[in-house]
Amino acid sequence: MLLVMLMVTAASAQTIEVASLFQPAQLSGIWKHQMGDNPRWADPAFDDSAWPSVQMPDGAIEPGSGFSWYRFRVRLPVNMPKEVLALMIGAFGSGQAYEVFWNGQRAGIEGELEGSLMGLLLPRPKAFPVPGNTRGAVIAIRLRSATFPFLYRLNRANRISWIGASQAIDVIVRA
């Protein structure tokens, strides 16, 4: 019985409950992380239960040069704002390019995922529009990064990811 309870707790630990979207909501909490690159990892039905868990945003891993994926689930409230929703992904490391998937569909891309390290950007948050007609979603982030420690260290505020009405998220991005 204890094992079943632990398994249920582990599976639900990666779902972030959002109480309201009338103000932007932080997507801090337990995310799953896996080094490597496999397009199947964007599929919301993919079983990521064996992946290591990281506490975000403080657990963002700078893997050096290479690909890794982050995944988490979000449950949205019943009362939704009428505005378009946006998902803002915080910065992960020193040099990065990434694409974001919402329930398996690409929501957006930032930087150049293929090619030389010159296509990697200085870390900066970016917002992507997402459908607001669902109560929940699996968010998958395919990250290509390179550690450039001589550039600068990210402060915690730039690593936080958010979800909310597009106009409110735009204010955070511009800050």
Can you describe this structure in just a few lines?
With 175 residues, the chain is mainly beta. It has helices at 2-12, 156-159, 166-174, and strands at residues 15-17, 25-26, 29-35, 53-56, 66-75, 85-89, 95-102, 105-110, 126-130, 136-146, 162-165. The longest helix is centred in the first third of the chain and has 11 residues, at 2-12.
Give the percentage of residues in beta strands.
35-45%
Major sheet description:
7 strands, mixed
Terminal-residue CA separation: 48 Å
Average pLDDT for all residues: 78
Helicity level: 10-25%
Provide the domain count: 1
Helix-strand makeup class: mainly beta
Question: Unreliable runs, pLDDT <50, ≥5 residues?
Answer: 1-13
CATH architecture: Sandwich
CATH topology: Jelly Rolls
- Coarse morphology: globular
Record field, number of beta strands = 11
State the oligomer: single chain
Number of helices: 3
- The whole-angstrom Rg is 16 Å
Order of helices and strands: HEEEEEEEEEEHEH
CATH superfamily: Galactose-binding domain-like
Per CATH, the class reads Mainly Beta
Secondary structure elements and pairings:
Blueprint (H helix, E strand, L loop, with lengths): L1 H11 L2 E3 L7 E2 L2 E7 L17 E4 L9 E10 L9 E5 L5 E8 L2 E6 L15 E5 L5 E11 L9 H4 L2 E4 H9 L1
Parallel strand pairs: 1-5
Antiparallel strand pairs: 2-11, 3-4, 3-5, 5-10, 6-9, 6-11, 7-8, 7-10
Q: Would you mind describing this structure in some detail?
A:
The chain starts with a helix and ends with a helix. It has one domain (25-174): Jelly Rolls. The model is unreliable at 1-13 (pLDDT under 50). Strand 7 and strand 8 form a beta hairpin. It has 175 residues and is mainly β. Helices cover 14% and strands 37% of the residues. The longest helix has 11 residues, at 2-12. Strands 1, 3, 4, 5, 7, 8 and 10 form a 7-stranded mixed sheet that branches. The chain has a 4-stranded antiparallel sheet with strand order 2-11-6-9, covered by helices on one side.
